[in-house]
Write a structure and sequence with these properties.
Blueprint (H helix, E strand, L loop, with lengths): L1 H14 L4 H7 L5 H15 L3 H15 L2 E2 L4 E2 L3 E3 L6 E2 L4 E2 L3 E3 L4 E3 L11 E2 L3 E3 L4 E3 L3 E2 L3 E3 L4 E2 L7 E4 L4 E5 L10
Parallel strand pairs: 1-4, 2-5, 3-6, 4-7, 5-8, 6-9, 7-10, 8-11, 9-12, 10-13, 12-14
Antiparallel strand pairs: 14-15
Helix pairs in contact: 1-2, 1-3, 3-4
Length: 180
């Protein structure tokens, strides 16, 4: 189940271990309810009751200050460290082990149809206030610095910072989950 992977990834981020006690601790941490609401929406959508699932997206806005579009898709290991101010466009597709801090926007760069949104690989950390915009691809094992504005493709293993974001480091050997 993806939600189990979500909490395992969060446990690894917080405590650098995955065991029963650390997973139980992350259940009460900031952001866990936001991921639960998102996964409940996905479940109801999967069983053909999307309208019921939309209630959970609305609850996410109300209780967590977080907007995740109906079509957004994240594999297991989706972590919202602090969900307040997070906005994720409905067209975003992401791999596994994605860790997102507060105030992050992942979305469209143009007003118009079709909407152009980013796709995200696996093992990505996105720092506080970062913006990932437009029809771009963020590779695997990437770290995006706080307040970075990413408007171009990011290669595997890169660390990007700045406005607009630029690559400051490439580590092709880092195959691990994102670290906070």
């Amino acid at each position: 189940m993806k939600i189990i992977d979500d909490f395992k990834c969060k446990s690894q981020c917080y405590y650098n271990r995955v065991d029963t006690m650390s997973i139980l601790k992350v259940l009460i941490k900031d952001g866990s309810s936001a991921v639960v609401f998102y996964r409940l929406f996905q479940f109801f959508k999967m069983i053909g009751m999307e309208i019921v699932g939309c209630l959970f997206l609305e609850l996410n806005k109300l209780f967590n200050g977080c907007v995740i579009g109906r079509g957004a898709h994240f594999e297991g290991g989706f972590v919202l460290m602090h969900p307040i101010g997070v906005v994720i466009n409905a067209g975003v597709k992401a791999g596994k082990n994605i860790v997102i801090e507060s105030g992050v926007v992942i979305g469209a760069a143009k007003n118009g149809i079709p909407v152009e949104v980013p796709s995200l690989g696996d093992n990505i950390f996105i720092g506080t206030g970062a913006k990932v915009l437009g029809n771009i691809h963020v590779g695997n094992n990437v770290k995006i610095g706080a307040n970075a504005v990413v408007v171009k493709d990011v290669p595997d293993g890169a660390t990007v910072v700045g406005i607009p974001a630029r690559v400051v480091k490439i580590d092709n050997n880092d195959q691990s989950s994102p670290k906070v």
